[in-house]
């Protein structure tokens, strides 16, 4: 495949992804049973994760979307400047909210989202992230559900992009350095 040529290494294959997402879904279904939570998908990176995760949750849930930008153009470092590009459609006041994220890197984006959503008085506010790069953390953020901890490498696929590309790669791969250097 053409996109495979830009990948140095498959970090997490499609089957491992699905198995872990199913585990997370079952755990979340148990934890949120009867609470009618709202899953807040952080666009665009978390969209594949959300759609697979929600299929594994056999309980009443709602979904909503929020688009955030923390990088301008070609992304290597978080700037710390976060903007809401698209806000939630519905109120979350008094609701149990689960933020669904693709990856936590420095933690700056998530810190901003948590602070912002907290001002809207949800009944609870927790985070489910597919990937976690703990080595890069600058802000201490509470993560209730983590799919995989990964090393400090630029990864793409399963929704994650580099410069808006590679989101459609069906696994998590490490991008060849010559593609971003
Ligand atoms: P943070 O604010 O530094 O935690 O950055 C979080 C955001 O940066 C994520 O939601 C991703 O959109 C993006 N990001 C961080 N690391 C990677 C990566 O390795 N590949 C693709 N996107 C990444
Ligand atoms: Mg993202």
Write the layout of secondary structure elements.
Blueprint lengths: L6 E6 L1 H18 L6 E6 L3 H8 L7 E8 L13 E4 L9 E9 L3 H11 L5 E9 L12 E5 L5 E2 L15 E4 L6
Parallel strand pairs: 2-3, 2-5, 5-6, 6-7
Antiparallel strand pairs: 1-9, 3-4, 8-9
Helix pairs in contact: 1-2
The structure holds inosinic acid and magnesium ion.
**Radius of gyration, CA atoms, in whole angstroms:** 16 Å
Topology pattern, helix = H, strand = E:
EHEHEEEHEEEE
Oligomer: single chain
- Helix percent band: 10-25%
Structural class: alpha/beta
The percent range for strand residues is 25-35%
Give the overall average pLDDT: 94
Number-wise, the strands total: 9
Shape: globular
What hetero molecules are bound to the protein chains? inosinic acid, magnesium ion
Strand order within the widest sheet?
4-3-2-5-6-7
The termini sit apart by 23 Å
Taking the sheet with the most strands, its summary is: 6 strands, mixed
> How many helical elements?
3
Q: Give start-end ranges of low-pLDDT stretches.
A: none
Account of the 3D structure:
The protein has 181 residues and is of the alpha/beta class. 20% of the residues lie in helices and 29% in strands. It has 3 helices and 9 strands. The strands form 2 sheets. Strands 4-3-2-5-6-7 form a 6-stranded mixed sheet, with helices on both faces. Helix 2 links the parallel strand 2 (38-43) and strand 3. Helix 1 crosses helix 2. The longest helix has 18 residues, at 14-31. It is globular, with a radius of gyration of 16 Å. Inosinic acid is lined by residues 45, 70, 78, 101-110, 154-156, 160-161.
């Amino acid at each position: 495949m053409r996109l495979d040529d830009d990948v140095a290494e498959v970090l997490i294959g499609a089957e491992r992804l699905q198995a872990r997402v199913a585990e997370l879904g079952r755990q979340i279904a148990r934890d949120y049973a009867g609470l009618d939570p709202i899953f807040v998908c952080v666009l665009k990176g978390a969209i594949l994760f959300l759609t697979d995760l929600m299929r594994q949750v056999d309980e009443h849930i709602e979904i909503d979307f929020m688009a955030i930008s923390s990088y301008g153009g070609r992304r290597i470092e978080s700037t710390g400047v976060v903007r809401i590009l698209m806000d939630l459609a519905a109120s979350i006041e008094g609701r149990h909210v689960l933020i669904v994220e693709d990856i936590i890197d420095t933690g700056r984006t998530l810190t901003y989202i948590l602070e912002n959503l907290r001002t809207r008085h949800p009944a609870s506010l927790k985070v489910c992230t597919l990937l976690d790069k703990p080595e890069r953390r600058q802000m201490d953020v509470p993560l209730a559900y983590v799919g995989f901890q990964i090393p400090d490498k630029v990864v793409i696929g399963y929704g994650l992009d580099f410069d808006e590309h590679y989101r459609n790669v069906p696994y998590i791969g490490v991008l060849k350095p010559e593609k971003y250097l």
